[in-house]
Amino acid sequence: AERTTYEANDHGVAVLRLARPEARNAIDTQMLVEMLEHLAVARADDAVHVLAISSSDHMGLSAGADVKEDLNEEGKVRRMQLFADLYDGVVGFPKPTVAACHGDVVGGGAEIAVACDLRVAGSNLRMRFPGAALGVPVGPARLVTLCGLATAKYLLLTSRTVGADEALRL
Questions:
Q1: pLDDT tens per residue, range 116-147
Q2: Torsion of the alpha carbons at 45, 51, 52 and 55, rounded to the nearest 10
Q3: Which of 109, 107, 108, 102 is nearest to 125 (CA)?
């Protein structure tokens, strides 16, 4: 079964939805492959003028990478490369991109949001880069362009959860 959906309407708006609510949209290899395929379709479609990245899960955009996915070393490396390809694909997308950020927007989900041109936050936003808490203080380089180096380092090194008002202020 597909773990993402894609549709484009007559107004030129394409919506790529993460659709794995039973796992809080934890992003596994299959989802990454599907998202890259949807990006390619939207990129090639001249009728698409904007791409929104959203969720079918009312609890949030994404809880981040699927830490429960059973991967061998080769699979882990492949998934990391697919994540990198996805971020590059979103950052380099030739049309405006918008992330619908509500509820949990964590880790890989937050990185996708940061990669988009615009982010729209719900009042229940809980954005977090959990890498430092997991012993891997990494995050999107693009975060620096949004909030400056000091704030980006603060968010990445503290794993602090940020709501909509604070995210806007930062």
A1: 999 999 999 999 999 887 777 666 778 888 99
A2: 40
A3: 102
Q: Is 36 helix (H, G, I), strand (E, B) or coil?
A: helix
**50/57 Cα distance (integer angstroms):** 21
Contacts of 121 (CB under 8 A, 6+ apart): 101, 102, 127, 164, 167, 168
Q: Given this model, what pLDDT does residue 138 score?
A: 67
Choose among 95, 164, 108: nearest CA to 139: 108
Answer yes or no: are the C-beta atoms of 106 and 63 closer than 8 Å. yes
The pLDDT confidence band at residue 4, using thresholds 50, 70 and 90, is: very high
Sorted by sequence, the CB contacts under 8 Å of residue 108 that are 6+ apart come out as 27, 62, 64, 65, 83
- pLDDT for 136: 72
Contact 146, 127 (CB under 8 A): no
114 within 8 A of 141, measured Cβ to Cβ: no
Half-sphere exposure of 58 (CA within 13 A, CB side): 0
**Alpha-carbon separation of residue 133 from 91, 114, 128, 130, 159 (angstroms):** 26, 20, 11, 5, 6
